[in-house]
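Homework help thread (please don't just give me the answer)

Our assignment gives two proteins as sequence + structure token strings and asks us to describe the second one. The first is just a warm-up. Here they are:
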Amino acid sequence: MAATTLNVKSVTELLESWLPKLGFEVYPLKVGWYNSVLPPSLRLAFPDDTLAVVVLSTPAMFEQAFLPFLKESGCHGISDPIDQCVKHCVTSAVSQCFPGQKVDVMYDYEMLPSRKPKFLAQTAAHVSGAAFYYQKSDVTDQPWAEKKMFGVCVHPRFGGWFAIRALLVFGDVTVGSEMVQPVPPDCVPTREGRIQLLEAFNFHWQDWSYRDIVRPVQIYSQRQKDYFSTRPAQRFALLKTWGFLQMEDHQPETNADAQGQENGHG
């Protein structure tokens, strides 16, 4: 498809013809919205009027994309199986929807040589209107003094039961003033609720409670909870007990996510 035929509407519609059936959501944004809230060292190297799309996974992704991916394709090498599945789904969608079109794809787990992430997933979700990124600065009269508190995104329909997976940048597609930046839904408007959310996320993320700060329309299945509750080093063994990965002897990645909290990994 020629670059001149692409715009916000056509890009979004093409992606939505492919990814939602696999349990993903897509939200368009301007690169300038993202860059405007970050210091120069973290900005994307694209003009402000460049079109980008953030890709989220919903609770349905595990059953609609991940388990079928394991059954049909299996995993290769030592990288994280979820990451492999997401990459397979996104690259397939891009190649099918935009043949010949240059699309820069960045995943939540990818790092630059400087060890900085290729993009800040929660910032991208916030400026696109997909989810509100609650941070320490969003709490008045903070009770934590100088203690560092990590922020967390809340989705208006899924609460914390989702993940931010990828950012697609369409370097040849520019958008003008007709694209108005949406305001992310403020799902946790009270000071007390925000304190509860940030404390649950920072101090008790393993018990899943922060994900239910709003009533979700869907949560992870028990099998999905079991998977993400398992330490990354043991997940290949768990998949084998489920009947997957029997043909290969996988060794898990040693630097798998230790946080268990960032929305990019479950």
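The one we have to describe:
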Amino acid sequence: MLDDEEEEIPVPINNDLERRIADAFEVFDHAGNKTVDVREIATIVRALGCCPTEAEIQEILMVVENPESPGSVHLSNFLPHISQVITEHKYQPASPAQLLEAFQVLDSDKKGFLTKEYISTLMTQDGEPFTQDELDEMLEIAIDPHTQTVPYEYYINQLMHEPEGENDIYTLADRVLEENPPPPPPPPPRRLSEFLASMSVPDFS
């Protein structure tokens, strides 16, 4: 539980990207104190249109979790970090073309589908394994109930509803960055040797 002083941390909203992030955060701010439970962070980030892995969610939590109130995340920590990672196009979802290419690599026989058993094995044993709940949710959409296979082109068409314009948060981030480019870095400190070398030395010969 945060004390009154922590609840009153001001969180200025400077642009449309930050407003979009803050709005998504506030949906889960049930107490109205600019704080959410750490277990909500993955949902908030994905609701914004980002696709981090579970390992990347843990990296986010390491940065944004309130060290003085473990288990909670304050908007003042969440907003600048997520704004930065979106501006850098991190966790951007794969395009339909990228998904199709990945499925075609797995479909070495060029059948146009993958079996339920094969896709289940891939998702639970290789790479970063899916939980059973995640697998069941995916298969509910992907499996053709008549053939018990994953006809992947049809699945991609069902899955992909690409947001248009600034409904895509990465497009919004690009526009905000273009309107408010970061200031140039300060010049490196000059060294005494460089200063002396730049001075014109009179020729007494």
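TA reply:
I won't write it for you, but here's a hint about the kind of observation we're looking for: Strands lie at 35-37, 72-74, 114-115, 149-150.
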